[in-house]
Amino acid sequence: MPTLTPERSATRARSTIRIHAADYETLSDLIVPTAEPTPGMRLLAAELERATVLDGPSRAEFVRLGSVVDYEDLGSGRVRTVRVSLPREASIDDGSISVLAPIGAALIGLSPGQSFGWRDENGRERAIRVLAVRSHG
Q1: Angle, CA of 125, 84 and 64, to the nearest 5°
Q2: To 5 degrees, how large is the angle CA 16–CA 20–CA 23?
Q3: What's the predicted TM-score (pTM) here?
Q4: Of all helices (H) and strands (E), which one includes residue 26?
Q5: Most distant pair of Cα atoms in the chain: their distance
Q6: What domains are defined for the chain?
Q7: Which of 34, 47, 90, 102 could form an S-S bond across to 98 if both were Cys, CB 3.0 to 4.6 Å?
Q8: For the chain, which residues score pLDDT lower than 50?
């Protein structure tokens, strides 16, 4: 069970997210209590705490480990496509982003059309919106 939680002032109210049970277990194992948890680790822990965990198959479209996601940065308007991956599989060269990076943690569990906002490690407000979830591995 995730144990790290961000400061309440560092995040906005969020909509419901879904996570498959297998992904939940894998992601929970990444949350390691340390003296200085990373911003992405704190964000992921908070997301896992509020997630609805699905035990069986689901027709719902939402970001999972291995998903290819189109998202918009609501601050800049920039649209990007990334694959959400485990830290050991993340590579800027192939467009994959670690689920322990703040953007990766923000994307996990969101469905197309859902937005997510948080305060980054420099205190800046960040917000993204999922445009499409095309596949998962």
Answers
A1: 100
A2: 110
A3: 0.81
A4: helix 21-28
A5: 40
A6: 8-135 (3.10.50.30)
A7: 90
A8: 1-12
